[in-house]
Amino acid sequence: MAKLDLDEMLAQIASEIAKITYRGRVADYIPPLADVSLDKFGMAVCTADGTCARTGDAEEGFSIQSVSKIFALTLALQHDAAEIWQRVGREPSGTPFNSIVQLESEHGIPRNPFINAGAIVIADILTARYGAKGVQAKLLALVRDLSGRDVTGEAPVSINEATARAEKSSGHRNVALAQYMRVFGNIRHDVEETLDAYFHQCALTMSCTQLARAGRYLMMEGVNPVSRHVIATAAHNRLILALMMMCGHYDASGNFAIKVGLPGKSGVGGGILAIAPRIASVAVWSPGLCAAGNSLLGTYALERLVQMTGWTVFS
Ligand code: GLN
């Protein structure tokens, strides 16, 4: 698709979004998220030909929150692939992102790596290998390498310490999930260190442009198109995309699959990364959430983009 067409489509979507009055509700469990304006909207689309189109607040950094679960899983798959699937399932949960209920009957094994419980097990695996500070460094290095720096004056991807601290001081449910899984022997490293790694990954700050660039390996069967490095094997990449489709939006994943029809992963900061395999990596940000904790207008923007481009994987 020509970049000009994409620019026009994004402008059209942004103008539609600007007219919508009900924008959902920002996450209010920590000030760094509660204080973000509902009016923010950004979108960036990187296509396989190497170009990127963007609109609105696409250069502004936001808290990627659970979108980071993709990168943490990618990192864990590089060295600990066999262990992951003994400790985390690969099925949709049908429950909210922070739910604890299935852990009792399923013996401390979370349904998938994208609900909080599953992501905390991934953080535990990574922390055992790299240490809590090492996980932060590894994730930052991965995401910085993937997102590159081609916008003049762009701030590098960073971890927002104030957000990480706020996650920690309000993260009682995540502490409960970790402690409960520990009872079943599914948190094996020091709980505090594992949670520290998890809270810091939630606090990764990126712009839509950076996030769309970082997602390009997912559209290219696991290969970073710039460095040509294999970030995920083709089989692992397919697995990540399948999980994004089934579990990337928690108990609203079915709705996202029907409306948008692309593998996608949301975060409570209002960001979504969606992948059209071999075609595009798309990041969108609108901080207002629906009841399931997914970006309301971000989902709408992706739905419109797919209507305009025909990029759904189901056609
Ligand atoms: N920091 C949030 C939490 O751990 C992330 C959840 C999300 O983005 N869905 O609850």
Description:
It is a single chain. The chain has 315 residues and is an alpha+beta fold. It has a single domain, classed as DD-peptidase/beta-lactamase superfamily (Beta-lactamase). The chain is 50% helix and 10% strand. The chain contains 14 helices and 8 strands. It has helices spanning 3-19, 31-34, 68-87, 101-105, 116-130, 132-147, 161-170, 172-183, 191-202, 208-214, 216-219, 234-247, 253-259, 296-309, and strands at residues 42-47, 52-56, 62-63, 158-159, 204-206, 264-266, 271-276, 280-285. The strands form 2 sheets. It has a 5-stranded antiparallel beta sheet, with helices on both faces. Helix 5 (116-130) packs across helix 6. The chain is globular, with a radius of gyration of 18 Å. The two termini are 17 Å apart. 53% of the residues are buried. Glutamine (GLN) binds at residues 65-66, 97-98, 116, 167, 174, 202, 267-268, 293.
SSE topology sketch:
Layout: H1 3-19, H2 31-34, E1 42-47, E2 52-56, E3 62-63, H3 68-87, H4 101-105, H5 116-130, H6 132-147, E4 158-159, H7 161-170, H8 172-183, H9 191-202, E5 204-206, H10 208-214, H11 216-219, H12 234-247, H13 253-259, E6 264-266, E7 271-276, E8 280-285, H14 296-309
Antiparallel strand pairs: 1-2, 1-8, 3-5, 4-5, 6-7, 7-8
Helix pairs in contact: 1-14, 3-5, 3-12, 5-6, 5-8, 5-9, 6-9, 6-10, 7-9
The structure holds glutamine.
Structure at a glance:
Homotetramer. The chain is of the alpha+beta class.
